[in-house]
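Researcher: Structure for this, please.
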Amino acid sequence: MKQEHIRNFCIIAHIDHGKSTLADRFLESTNVVGRVDVAQVLDSMDLEREKGITIKSHAVRMVHKYQGQDYVLNLIDTPGHVDFSYEVSRALASCEGAILLVDASQGIEAQTMSNLYLALENNLEILPVLNKIDLPKADIDGSEHDLMEIMGCAAEDILRVSAKSGQGVTELLDAVVERLPAPQGKVDAPPQALIFDSYFDMYRGVVVLVRLFEGSLNKGDRIKLFSTGKEYEIEEIGHLELKFSPQNKLTTGEAGYIIANIKEVADARVGDTITLAKGGCEESLPGFMEPKPMVYSGIFPINGEDYENLVDSIAKLKLNDASLIYEKENSMALGYGFRCGFLGMLHLEIVKERLLREYNIPIIATTPSVRFLIRLKNGEDITVNNPVDFPDPIYIESVQEPFMDTEIIVPTDYIGNIMKLAQERRGIQKDIQYIDEKRVALHYEMPLIEIIFDFYDKLKTVSRGYASLDYAFKEFRPSQVVKVDILINGEKVDAMSFICHKDKAHSWGKSVTDTLAEVIPRHLFKIALQAAIGGTIIARSTVNAMRKDVLAKCYGGDVSRKRKLLEKQKEGKKKMKEIGSVTVPQEAFLAVLKADRE
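Model: Predicted structure, token format:
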């Protein structure tokens, strides 16, 4: 296929703006599939369909006839959620153009903006499209006005479609051919291919999805991966149709797959460059980064006997999710498990769900934490992501925590609520931009530890669901964070420890102890539930003892007799408190996660 007849493009949009549905209509229009019986064909996981989100990026090759000529359209589908923004950036780097899809009933939202900026950084040609124009509440003129303001385009440049009904889809495919550029690159140059996705196949090893920028790759070629320097032989190469279509070669501008007996997904990292082992290109394509975990949490099986299964399952899950990082961990309260690093809270939730559904292992995740840089008084620098490893305050010189650049887009009616919430979460306001007379973009610098605890839920609550959020790592800054230990009957429970800012330690600690007091059953002795920083108790709740009436048999008589019985009971309770153990139910660990952190 000639380069001028190829178009590589992606669809960028906020969650739930109809990206996967539009992809379904494309597949129907180009006869890749017949009538779609399953919605969101490219979303292969049940979890993706249920949550209405794309978790992994997908790719598919379509052939569209335009003015009597066949054009190959490679659609590289991208996730919309902020947790998967690295996958979005690699998909964008594989394309020459992007469809910017905006829901006409919701307008432009935070992640639409962040993905648009990413696309512009990659010098992509943008094709603005309004979706859901058939909805009764669609504000077509308002959304069109927003797009014109942001992109500086004319009204006639904006296409209107309904991905659900298929209205305007053929015209959109024509516009992709007309307005998006063909790939550039030299066919006779040494090959240079970008890995934009990879996953593990049980029978064939790692399948690598690539976009060729220069040269060509043939079946049987010996290839090299830039980041590891490892060499492999191409066993199969081909096009990405709904099912793989093997070919003898891929040439400049094409997107396809390579199977080369690669054993580990970690070896074929997203963003890496593939070239020939001998006579290959001199330098890799720009932009390769290791995805960095932002949120850390301990994962433990609810049933101890599931541990061996969890070891196997998490290793298999890692094969399909290179951004998941884990190491073994042992907790006094929860037994054996893993300390895992995730891209964000949604990523954590997805991993928990997949372990339950795909491997049938119910798990508990401990209180999420982030990475802190700590300087000790002896001059040593350490990195801590687990509250258990946090040093005693007397040894700490200074602590730095990660701050994020945060963008919140919200209707003007809710500005006050959002500002109050951001202030409570230690947000530093940078500026306010009015997108139009109805909506505003608020920019904050905010600590990541404040974002991962229910910030998104609270944001949706105070804005009645209208606010949208996007954030990206900015830098580490000095901060007064402390580790709060939870003590049950004087015993530290390591799995309940958490790290927070000094000013919030009392309120968060009190919230956790109060929550525990509700779920821990009463014993025959009083149970003290305490929150402590180092050796200082900062909050306390009490579970009262179950009371046995020892005076029931005394119908009268001398008061000294009653006093003697009560003293005897008091001694018994004291002894029981010393040797008795508190049974902490499983719900208590879950309750700690749900404790309100205002």
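Researcher: Any notable elements?
Model: The chain has five domains: 3-179, 192-276, 295-365, 372-478, 482-594. The first strand starts at residue 6 and ends at 12.
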